[in-house]
Amino acid sequence: MRTVSRKWALSARPAVEDGRGGAGDRPSHVPAARRPAAGLRRALWWTLLTLTGGVERKGQLPPGGCVVVANHSSHADTAALLAALDARHAPAIGAAADYWFASPWRRRICSRLAAGFPVRRTGGGMDDLIAKADDLRAGRAVVLFPEGTRARAGELGAFHRGAVVLAEHARVPVVPVAIAGTDRLLPKHGRLRPALVRVAVGDPLPASATPEEARDAVAALHRRTTGEPLRDSAARKRTAAVVASRWGLPLAFAWAFAEALSWPLMPELFLAIACVAMPRRALKLSLTALAGSLAGGLLALQLAASGAQLPQPLTTDRMRAEVRAELAVESAAAVRHQPWNGIPFKVYAREAGRADVAPSDWLTHSALSRGSRTLTVGLAFGAFGFLVHRLRRFYGLYLALLGAGFTIGLSLIVAGWS
After folding, report:
1. What angle do CA 413, 416, 418 make, to 5 degrees?
2. What are the residues whose beta carbons fall under 8 Å from the beta carbon of 272, sequence distance 6 or more?
3. What is the pTM of this model?
4. Closest Cα to residue 1, out of 142, 144, 152?
5. Exposed, middle or buried, 200 (CB in 10 Å: 0-12/13-18/19+)?
6. Which helix (H) or strand (E) holds 51?
7. What phi, psi does 159 have (nearest 5°)?
8. Sign of dihedral through CA atoms 209, 214, 70, 39?
9. What is the pLDDT of residues 324-336, one digit of tens each?
10. What was the pLDDT predicted at 156?
11. Are the CB atoms for 141 and 68 separated by under 8 Å?
């Protein structure tokens, strides 16, 4: 979200009214009518950020109203704060009036989805801020980006006076907050890409804090937050390194190709391992595995048609009999049952070759059936990888559970078809 420039931040300061705005004069709770809307906004942005890599928060706002000052490097900073700050403070975000409130639809988006309030950048901006003093005394959090604009990644500009003047006027603390990861999630002049966002809430500063003190507190908090390594699994890092290397896609192709001929482990198992470790490659891995499966199935059909027989472990006579019966009725279209009945793809490919199914018909129908399953499974595990990005330190446990679940499931399928 665009923020307020230095024009209003350096404008004349209003006098603090004597005898008003003391800490003992303000209510301790936000009016109940504001909380449902704040809760819905928090749920919305938390959900969206979870889908793009996750959001974490450390620390919490103090009771009562406060002015939140945060570093600003991305338009995603507003979403991060609305997702991380608790709804009981009903956070309100200062936004540039000449941009976010210049048209009715922008005004609605800013005020309803981002809890924004207009701050003029060409004079009168300080009055717009002071008008939020009653909200602060009522227990709300007013969020400002004192740099006045998005800074480059890793930089922190000078803080203007607007935030500290407002805090002093309302007699509420200034709370430093550091945001890390939004510069990777949505870089300045860049495109959205997956990244974990971390929000760290620092200790409150007194209302008399200077802009320099507020900036120093945010800068120190930001350094600690960005310098703290994300806990990760060694198994995930090794898996991701292989998947991201030049061998990742050939391995997906070879696994699926071999499974269509003889290999007993389905390519979806490979996708469950690889796509969770490296979610952003889920589509490429799934498409490559599909290509390998189709190529292997076509070769299996040709080999069976010529009389060659490759071993097919963990398949049963009943599976083969079922496939022969389906092929006799539906020909190549019988493969549409394969994604859901538990019979391996290689059984369909070999029996189709024995039944003299035309390779072109086989390729068309198997592309539809295998594509529906392989792409769905691969993309689902990629989405799961995004959702659990913050829990990647448990990847080793995930592999153990995956292996156990796959073993049990495969055993049940083989037993059911025996």
Report:
1. 110
2. 377, 381, 402, 406
3. 0.64
4. 144
5. buried
6. helix 34-51
7. -95, 135
8. negative
9. 999 999 999 999 9
10. 84
11. yes
Q: What is the DSSP letter of 87?
A: G
The single-letter DSSP state of residue 314 is T
From residue 155, give the alpha-carbon distance in Å to each of 80, 126, 178: 18, 26, 12
* Helix, strand or coil, per DSSP, at residue 94: strand
CA dist list (Å): 255 to 60, 125, 206, 266, 294: 48, 62, 62, 8, 12
Integer-rounded Cα radius of gyration of the chain: 29
Q: Which residues are 94's β-sheet partners? A: 117
The Cα 274–Cα 227 span in angstroms is 28
Tokens of 317: 């006579």
Name 188's Cβ contacts closer than 8 Å, sequence gap at least 6.
Answer: 73, 74, 150, 152, 153
pLDDT at 74 over 60: yes
Distance CA 46, CA 52 (A): 10
Q: Is the dihedral of CA 20, 86, 188, 105 positive or negative?
A: negative
Give the sign of the dihedral formed by CA 292, CA 295, CA 299, CA 305.
Answer: positive
What element of type H or E holds 174?
strand 174-180
Question: What's at 289, amino acid-wise?
Answer: A
Nearest partner of 362 among 310, 290, 297, 308, judged by Cα: 297
